[in-house]
């Protein structure tokens, strides 16, 4: 489950600009309505520091200043208040070695998470190449975990549910977490996973 590409070194303002641009893209898709969703980017590994989108902001209107630095547990180490889910971002990074994490609230992820609480299988689809598979001739399962307001408990569920070849998890009734080596890869993977979810929703 480990990502092999290290995160690029960025300062906080640069990271904030990157996250603001990514958030604006997702917001334009309707995946971060209101102030929902959050994004993170690894600033350093030793010690682990993440730039996380600030809590309570319209994700379509973020600026480079709307970011909070957190430690490896998701606690703020500078000014501002990070998303309440920063701890889960940090847990994903520690578990997978990811350089960026995307959390968005999409209709397809919520519906499919409710319909398939044991996980959502995908097989024989060309779009699976977008998750790093060399061919469409693979079978993968998108894990679904029960929601919790306790980020430690939610993180334990995520850790237990991780699946090889699937850099994403659906949180039932909530949304999806997707990760990659950098923000661009995390974005591409989020778009692929959402496409797969929309396809499965249409099939059913």
TrEMBL record:
**Pathways per UniProt:** Amino-acid biosynthesis; L-methionine biosynthesis via salvage pathway; L-methionine from S-methyl-5-thio-alpha-D-ribose 1-phosphate: step 2/6
Q: Which reaction does it catalyse?
A: 5-(methylsulfanyl)-D-ribulose 1-phosphate = 5-methylsulfanyl-2,3-dioxopentyl phosphate + H2O
Q: Does the keyword Lipoprotein apply?
A: no
Please give the SUPFAM superfamilies that the UniProt record associates with this protein.
Answer: AraD/HMP-PK domain-like (SSF53639)
Give its E.C. classification number.
Answer: 4.2.1.109
Query: What general EC class does the enzyme of this chain belong to?
Result: lyase
Q: Where is the Class II aldolase/adducin N-terminal domain?
A: 17-201
Q: Name one GO molecular function term.
A: methylthioribulose 1-phosphate dehydratase activity
Going by the UniProt record, its keywords in alphabetical order are: Amino-acid biosynthesis, Lyase, Metal-binding, Methionine biosynthesis, Zinc
- Report any Pfam family annotated for this entry: Aldolase_II
Name what cofactor the protein needs: Zn(2+)
Task: Identify the domain of life.
Answer: Bacteria
Q: Which family does it belong to?
A: Belongs to the aldolase class II family. MtnB subfamily.
Question: Per its UniProt record, what PANTHER family does this chain match?
Answer: METHYLTHIORIBULOSE-1-PHOSPHATE DEHYDRATASE (PTHR10640:SF7)
Q: What is this protein called?
A: Methylthioribulose-1-phosphate dehydratase
Lineage, broadest ranks: Bacteria, Bacillati, Actinomycetota, Actinomycetes, Kitasatosporales
